[in-house]
Design brief:
Number of strands of chain A: 0
Oligomer: homotrimer
Strand content of chain A: under 5%
Number of helices of chain A: 10
Helix content of chain A: over 70%
Distance between the termini of chain A: 53 Å
Largest sheet of chain A: none
Structural class of chain A: mainly alpha
């Protein structure tokens, strides 16, 4: 069976949604929220970045609301985290980090793609790729009344922006869209994972 | 005098706006904000849910900005809370809770109505009903830098979602729109009030 | 060389963007964020108010994303604050306050202008002028998980609203648009500066 690029992107997008929903819901369990709080936090983490992107692009209603697959997948992921949170919490943190990096890479790529489709400039497309990647986690942290992790530490948003920029650069160099997306996603994923392994940090001052 | 359904919904919407504005402003007084902070918090609590809904639906400018009745009613409510806060704070908490449940029911119904008018799917209409009901209080809590109450405890958003779902179900069963709205609103109101009286809680884990 | 009013407004808007970016980034440095956190906080402080205004007006994509001059200026300002933050922090607080008041005046005026261009009512135009002025700082405070300063103290949002209202009043009185904007901006700036010097506060209760 042959998958069209659009269809593949769509499936990858849903995979990222599932992953981020599980992650957001697990955080909610750890913070002693009730069942609905868990569902809301899972949903917001999973689709928050895409909703911000679509609102900024004027593409309303956002695809996460127009297409019921997104809420369905997000609530499934959050329910899984609620039902199996004992097991979810036992997953080694390195694997959680790599799954999270996968979700980040995916959303960075799909956000950039969506922005380019709507004729945004490269600079704006990179920013929207980054926002799509980190927006959900930022909403999660705001709802928990804590400073968003993305502002404080690690190469996280940086990885999303680097992946997005790489993807645009590849297109400019004449590489096919699908490969550009794959290369950009790989750069984001690897930069994130390697930065955790090597304890890379951005400077906080000169 | 005979009221059309639209006009009745509109009046109920304004009543909910007044109520939530008083509530938001009273919270602001209790948190020692100044006069403008009180007005802003009252306004945000009263119209925040509707503004989020309209932005997500792409119905911009939001009705709370297009129609000056909404800001006027919101600021009136907030001013009343500022002027009479000594008396407002003496209102028995059970009555405050019931008024709040009334506002919640109202906004859940009007949010669902608005989403259905714009051809959203039932699942999305339920979510938008819930967002309209709890959005204002969530913005209030975010501005006060505390975890939104809706995430933490009680059957609150759950009541809004249940009312919204009931309303849609009634319509599917062929019940007239006005009665469907009344039944949905009653379910939301009663579920909220009874859950407080009986100390019902959603499970936080299995 | 003769500047058209539109071009002048545009240049003043960019000046305000630069100023608020430096201020937001300096706050980020003081809160020990890393380089990307500094850039994000600078950017959000500088263009946040305008983005909220544009989203509420339905003018999407917001001008801060459509026109790359805005992000470029915002990131330049944030980078300057990062590179020279030792010097930036030594600027006397009175001068910082006056520069900030200048940015506030500017954004209040440009937000009001934009709302009037889109046929909003005077009440809504005043509110959008205020939101444009204080929105960026509010997002900055939310991202740092603290109650927005604008809610808590001082004549800050009040100055923005007063400047915006004055500008609209002047237009009604038949004063030319450019002069109305200048008068409104001056009222905002002076009210803010004098209120700090004289320790004016809004009442927190009667």
């Amino acid at each position: 069976m042959q998958l069209s690029p659009t269809r593949m992107l769509y499936l990858v997008d849903l995979a990222g949604t599932l992953l981020f929903a599980i992650e957001g819901a697990t955080t909610a369990v750890a913070n002693h929220l009730d069942l609905l709080g868990i569902l809301i936090l899972g949903f917001a983490t999973a689709v928050g970045g895409g909703i911000i992107r679509d609102v900024l692009l004027g593409a309303t209603p956002p695809s996460a609301l127009r297409n019921w697959h997104y809420p369905a997948v997000a609530f499934t992921g959050a329910s899984l985290a609620f039902l199996f949170h004992t097991y979810v919490q036992e997953i080694p943190s390195q694997i959680v980090m790599m799954l999270d990096a996968g979700g980040l890479a995916l959303f960075a790529v799909s956000g950039t793609e969506e922005a380019l489709l709507r004729k945004m400039s490269p600079l704006v497309a990179i920013m929207l790729g980054g926002i799509t990647g980190v927006g959900g986690g930022t909403i999660r942290d705001l709802l928990l009344a804590r400073t968003p992790r993305v502002l404080q530490a690690d190469i996280y948003a940086t990885a999303a922006l680097a992946g997005s920029a790489t993807m645009i650069l590849c297109r400019r160099l004449g590489i096919k869209d699908t490969y550009s997306a794959l290369i950009g996603g790989a750069v984001c994923f690897l930069l994130r994972v390697v930065s955790v392994w090597c304890h890379w940090q951005l400077p906080a001052h000169l």
